Amino acid sequence: MERHSKSGLQLLELCINLLFFCIILTICVQFFVRSYRDRKESECITFAVNEVCNMAEILNTNDISLPEITEYFENAYISEDNKSATVYYDKDYNETDANDFYYRMDVTLNPEEDGTSADIDYFKTESDGTASCLYSVNIFSHTRLTIDEGGM
Predict the structure, then answer these.
(1) Angle, CA 103 vertex, CA 102 and CA 105 arms, to 5°
(2) CA–CA separation, 109 vs 115, rounded Å?
(3) What is the pLDDT confidence band of residue 142, given thresholds at 50, 70 and 90?
């Protein structure tokens, strides 16, 4: 009889250890899932920041003119009035067309009296069709004066 009670205690101890193991495993899996989701989000935001900064540099270098960006962004869609452009990206951050995109970067030029400003916004398209802004920047380029225009 003693032998039967010892094996029952061992079985109970094994069940309790298995329960603790399952609880700890559940917690660890949650950490791994959260870590994976955070890594994906961080990767997305890093790409958005890089693309917006690249666009800002290109616009500053070219005195804020949109037609020249097609040299750097091959699939950029430029409006007829040359005041706005859109670049579309798929889920793997490759440029794509307007029919199959997951991310998009919008550039809008705003002429002002002493120069031109540009709003550059990077959006993520959600599954329900709404877009959320991941990163946005506004740049300004002053009009350069030449000697004929009153500069020195």
Answers:
(1) 150
(2) 11
(3) confident
- Residues in Cβ contact with 90 at an 8 Å cutoff, skipping those fewer than 6 apart: 96, 100, 101, 102, 103
Which residue from 76, 84, 87, 86 is spatially nearest to 110, judged by alpha carbons?
A: 84
Return the residue matching tokens 């699939």: 75
- Tokens representing 102 are 């997951």
Q: Give CA–CA dist 135/46, Å, rounded.
A: 10
Beta carbons of 74 and 89 less than 8 angstroms apart? no
| 51 CB neighbour count, 10 Å cutoff | 20
Tell whether the model's pLDDT for residue 81 goes beyond 70: yes
Helix, strand, or coil here: 90?
A: coil
Beta strands 131-142 and 115-125, pairing class: antiparallel
9 DSSP assignment = H
Burial of 77 (0-12, 13-18, 19+ CB in 10 A): middle
pTM of the model: 0.73
